[in-house]
Amino acid sequence: xxxxxxxxxxxxxxxxxxxxxxxxxxxxxxxxxxxxxxxxxxxxxxxxxxxxxxxxxxxxxxxxxxxxxxxxxxxxxxxxxxxxxxxxxxxxxxxxxxxxxxxxxxxxxxxxxxxxxxxxxxxxxxxxxxxxxxxxxxxxxxxxxxxxxxxxxxxxxxxxxxxxxxxxxxxxxxxxxxxxxxxxxxxxxxxxxxxxxxxxxxxxxxxxxxxxxxxxxxxxxxxxxxxxxxxxxxxxxxxxxxxxxxxxxxxxxxxxxxxxxxxxxxxxxxxxxxxxxxxxxxxxxxxxxxxxxxxxxxxxxxxxxxxxxxxxxxxxxxxxxxxxxxxxxxxxxxxxxxxxxxxxxxxxxxxxxxxxxxxxxxxxxxxxxxxx
Length: 372
Hints:
Shape: globular
CATH superfamily of the largest domain: FAD/NAD(P)-binding domain
CATH class of the largest domain: Alpha Beta
Number of strands: 17
Number of domains: 2
Distance between the termini: 43 Å
Strand content: 15-25%
CATH topology of the largest domain: FAD/NAD(P)-binding domain
Oligomer: single chain
Order of helices and strands: EHEEHHEEEHEEEEEEHHEEEHHHEEHHHH
């Protein structure tokens, strides 16, 4: 039986690794030309019951602990006028409940755990029919089980459902400050060791320290249209002018926050936030399934990567437990995945509603204090 995974993101690689540990071969097709062809984003907090569980099932929990950052669990929550609502500093001996890890480092760990030729780079999936994959370069490959791990804009998804991602009303601009401890020690001290959130009315600023010394800045604009980037007046092709315009959009905020924007380099990345319907399901098909964002795209509030990793691990375990009956294994996996990710999707949607509401900072403080 040929197991084919489309997409070398975290979920697809977790699946390939768990299959490998259980003596089952799989091939991963990835559209990127090489492992370093594209930046992999910022930090992730891996939860003990989901993302870390997946790393245990993959036999990689010790390696994960070696690259995880306990201090990345630190959190500061503020309002636009500079009022500090919450500060959580992680003790050096605190348990690794939700340690942070660079997404790129985690992906490299998973890639290094696979056989050399498990990932076929430069293969952009186009379509599949009658047990045959078709790629953009005209080549093809056979499959018995196809797993779509190809993200928000999944091409595999169309084989199972007509559902498409829709805009949430949130648009984000990513900026960054390299080597912040050396270049801007005052801002480094303000941001701290982990996550720094400033929540206002229909706008937010978050700063996230990465393991390489870079701080990624995310500017959120809520209740905005899908074409907001075109109408915002931000000249994305001119980074210096874009920073000036973005600072203008935060007029009235404490000057320390706009100083973060002013200190950024020329990285200016616009991103629209989309989601799939919460509770999306499809009739089980013997030879095709989905995992991760391809199956249950959620707002970016901490659940997506954890769910994707656990999807991959649990699908791998289900297939290993039923090596002679993959259709039954797929059905078992999907039944559990639908229930688990529906709950995660509902919580993510609830947090997204807080972020998009008036007085978001106070409402988020109440959310944290409830211990949800």
